[in-house]
UniProtKB/TrEMBL annotation:
InterPro entries: Glyc_kinase_flavodox-like_fold, Glycerate_kinase, Glycerate_kinase_RE-like, Glycerate_kinase_sf. Belongs to the glycerate kinase type-1 family. Keywords: Kinase, Transferase. This is Glycerate kinase. GO terms for biological process: organic acid phosphorylation. Coiled coil: none annotated. PANTHER family: GLYCERATE KINASE (PTHR21599:SF0). NCBIfam families: glycerate kinase (TIGR00045).
Length: 400
């Protein structure tokens, strides 16, 4: 059977490539940000393993942690579909985007990264004083119009720092300045808000179950807050960071008066430029992204009878130990007696704390090259490395 035939057979078997041998492998990677989606990563690993492990049963579950690729991963894993819509992007420009409808026909997945994402803004145009989550509210409203009331929202990868002002405005809330004019829904408008009217907020939101996937535990304001920690990567200068932080504090005070409780210090309130705060205000439940996506995709049940589990991400470093997807997958594998392996785009320094979680860790860069070259050749580099891992598994299994 040729490799192309094997892959076709896999695609027609509901995410599984089956053969006669009992060796069971689960492939559950995150995306390699900027180069390969989780689906592409997993598909490449699967093809490589099929070359080296004739007869293995391979279950492929693309994963995410709430950032880029969350919608695609869940739609693929749960036999869903994508509804295409046009909305306002992070610079309030028209963009084509969409939301996922999972196989249960009841759950919608919104991914902030493909509505108000950082990669949607050119580097020279990045300035969180000028970006907005308005489109998130528009897409949400579209899903509400279709009758959906259960939502999973992935917060990673945003270009914004507006505290959810734009989203709330798109969902009907009114924010006015001292002159009674509606403020522009961007981060730079937060300090201009003088009056908040929530009476016109979409009443259907009270009927919703809102689950939020994030791997960020930062509060809204302060030294560990959204502006200070994430503002620089979104293009903010030191002075703009101070301005944004003061704006978020002012915004929070106005909303907390209406809510009757403080939410700004809740872990995750600072996620996606403070969008986490606005979602908490709407009654959302914030859950570690990797955990939420794994549960929604039914990953643990797929791992239950696995011999080996392969995961990975774009860059593995010391931060991976703090709830990133590969650690979540590795712990799940260990609970069921499977052997976890990691294949990532690169492996940074200070990874000593990760050794207890994996049988071995592999970076796909096998020779000196620039980042641009690595990204350009990511698929072929991954294929080569995954074949090496397949040979490792074969030797271990042969000598067992």
């Amino acid at each position: 059977m040729t490799l192309s035939t094997k892959v076709l057979y896999y695609q027609t078997m509901d995410n599984k490539y089956k053969h006669t041998k009992e060796l069971n492998i689960v492939v559950a990677p995150d995306s390699y940000k900027g180069s390969l989606t989780a689906k592409e990563v997993g598909g490449t690993i699967l093809k490589a393993l099929a070359v080296e492990l004739e007869g293995a049963q391979i279950t492929f579950v693309p994963m995410a942690d709430g950032g880029e690729g969350t919608m695609e991963a869940l739609v693929f894993a749960m036999n869903g579909r994508i509804e295409t819509v046009q909305t306002k992007g992070p610079l309030l420009q028209p963009v084509d985007t969409g939301y996922g409808i999972l196989g249960d026909g009841e759950t919608v997945v919104l991914e902030v990264a493909n509505i108000a994402g950082l990669t949607m803004v050119k580097k020279e145009e990045r300035n969180p004083l000028h970006t907005s989550t308005f489109g998130v509210g528009q897409v949400w409203s579209h899903a509400l119009d279709q009758g959906y009331r259960r939502f999973i929202i992935g917060l990673g990868g945003s270009a914004t720092n507006d505290g959810g002002l734009g989203m709330l405005q798109a969902l009907g809330a009114d924010f006015h300045d001292q002159n009674g004019q509606t403020v522009i829904p961007v981060g730079g408008s937060l300090r201009e808000i003088d009056r908040v009217d929530l009476n016109s907020l979409d009443p259907r939101l009270r009927e919703c179950e809102i689950l939020v996937a994030t791997d960020v535990t930062n509060p809204l304001c302060g030294e560990q807050g959204s502006s200070k920690v994430f503002g620089p990567q979104k293009g903010a200068t030191a002075e703009q960071i101070r301005q944004l932080d003061r704006g978020l504090a002012h915004f929070a005070q106005l909303l907390e008066v209406n809510r009757g409780e403080s939410l700004r210090d809740f872990p995750g309130a600072g996620a996606a430029g403070g969008l986490g705060f606005a979602l908490l205000f709407l009654g959302a439940k914030l859950i570690p992204g990797a955990q939420l996506i794994a549960e929604a995709a039914g990953l643990e049940e797929k791992i239950r009878h696995a011999d080996w589990v392969i995961t990975g991400e774009g860059k593995t470093d010391y931060q991976t130990q703090y709830g990133k997807l590969p650690i979540t997958v590795a712990k799940m594998a260990q609970r069921h007696g499977a052997k976890p392996l990691l294949i990532s785009g690169s492996i940074g320094s200070d990874v000593e704390p990760l050794y207890p979680y994996f049988v071995s860790m592999h970076a796909i860069v096998r020779r000196p090259m620039s980042l641009e070259q690595a990204i350009e050749n990511a698929e072929s580099l991954l294929f080569e490395t995954a074949r090496e891992v397949g040979r490792l598994i074969r030797v271990v299994e042969t000598n067992r």
